[in-house]
Write a structure and sequence with these properties.
The protein has about 160 residues and is an alpha+beta fold. The protein has five helices and eight strands, in the order H-H-E-E-E-E-E-E-H-E-E-H-H.
Length: about 160
């Protein structure tokens, strides 16, 4: 994929849609393009968050470790962004992200990501929207599990 193709891809991502072309070119140029085979880990729960990933093509599973083993909490696909929680909150990775299929991604370093947020507040707004959407989804899953447990306890 050429630099121009990566710029066009970034433009399709809501988080980056309003950034000037020159800045998108800088982002594409300074990001690392990586390929993963099915089953390879992009980032592991508990590791230091030093970058976020933009999935160019393919799918990845997001899993968290529980007492009963790994639990898949989401499946990501083309144009999804992952890994930003660890770099935004300066906490260890909250989940493991594993390629479900052959996958191509852009790896965006923490320092570059913060510089972009500082220069382009619309990116920060889009990140907040995405994190809010994920929180709402997690809350819905928790409600479903709680209702399921209540029904199971009534027997």
């Amino acid at each position: 994929m050429s630099l121009q193709q990566e710029v066009e891809l970034l433009r399709k991502i809501p988080m980056f849609a309003n950034i000037e072309p020159a800045q998108l070119k800088l982002l594409a140029f300074t990001s690392e393009r990586l390929s993963y085979a099915s089953g390879e880990v992009l980032c592991r729960q508990g590791d230091t968050g030093d970058a976020a990933f933009l999935i160019i093509a393919g799918e990845a599973d997001v899993t968290i470790e529980t007492e009963k083993g790994p639990l898949t909490v989401a499946t990501l696909g083309d144009h999804d962004f992952v890994g930003e929680i660890a770099i935004l909150c300066d906490v260890p990775r909250t989940a493991t992200v594993t390629a479900r299929s052959d996958l191509k991604a852009l790896r965006i370093e923490k320092d570059l990501f913060f510089r972009l947020i500082g220069e382009f507040p619309e990116i920060a707004k889009e990140v907040m929207r995405e994190l809010s959407r994920r929180l709402a989804h997690s809350n819905a899953q928790l409600r479903e599990m709680a209702m399921s447990l209540e029904k199971g306890g009534e027997k």
